[in-house]
Amino acid sequence: MTATHQLQKSQVISVHYMRGFACLIVVLLHYGAYINNLFSFGKFGVDLFFIISGFIITLTTSKNKSIIHFLRKRFLRIYPIYFIVWLFFCLTLYYNESLSTILKSLFLLHKDYSQPAPGYGWNMLGPPWTLAYEVVFYFIFALAMKINHRRRIHVATATIILAVVGLQYLYNGNFHFNSSISAHLDVKNPGQAVIKLLSTTILFEFIAGMIIAYNYDKIKTLKPKTYIPLGVLLLIVSFFVFIKYHNTGFGMDGFFWFTLPLFLGLLLLEPLLIKFQFRALSFMGDISYTLYLIHFPILLLYEKHFPTFGMHHYSFLKFLILIGSSILISTLLHKYIEKPLMLKK
């Protein structure tokens, strides 16, 4: 397959496109503040990311049984570029933050665990608050691989459900499906922070991705007369759910019910997407992680150094400049730092 940003043959193209789309919609959510909050619904990108993660991690470990190799790949995928971004913005933007906030961000912890789940006051860098859940999922999945590689999906699913339900009953005396609920405890150390992370139902979104991946071989055998109408139907369902609940929140009582049929619908239409080359979405998929990391601090940098720039009738200009500069910087980071690191996996 030839394209400006060539996809690997092993990649599921629809998922790569969705990764780019999910990142873009999160960026538009934040930058949309300068065009009358036009993309206020963009938080659903987070839910889509978690489903994608559960799906990809399951597929990419189908043959590899090495836990060390798996965790090493995950570390190289997430942390080196994160550390570079963290260090740069600590020096240029967040130097007045408390040492506690800076160190929490360094170790992917949230700012304030007294705040509601799943964001807990967010990460110092903003959107990377989601990385804490990714890391928790990786360790659960690694444990599942160790216990029984062939049944790793079943073990990981059971572990997540037992952890979430069990911890809520242990600390709260009941269970809530709402992803803004977690174990009621005062966090005084990283271990208690992990309990907070393990007790929110937003982790169930990883389960959805795993289950879909488990059935992916069956999905690929579907004939056009089946996957085309079914895929289109799921996209229609997703659209109507979005229209009705576009002002909802994260997780199982929120955007999960929009992103699940969206993910399934586009995955079913994979054979059609292979025939077309959406270079823009492929490109966005390539730079999605670096763009996700830097776009919010870049917004704050603009506000800090140009406090009156882009206000009022210049807002759309600021929106365009933010988008353009973030994509440019993300592209450079991906090409010269992230991509070389990925080749070392």
UniProtKB/TrEMBL annotation:
The chain crosses the membrane at residues 12-32, 38-57, 78-95, 120-141, 153-171, 191-214, 226-243, 255-274, 281-302, 314-337. One of its GO terms (molecular function) is acyltransferase activity, transferring groups other than amino-acyl groups. One of its GO terms (biological process) is polysaccharide biosynthetic process. Keywords: Membrane, Transmembrane, Transmembrane helix. Residues 14-334 form the Acyltransferase domain. GO terms for cellular component: membrane. Pfam families: Acyl_transf_3. The keyword Lyase does not apply. It comes from the Bacteria. This is Acyltransferase 3 domain-containing protein.
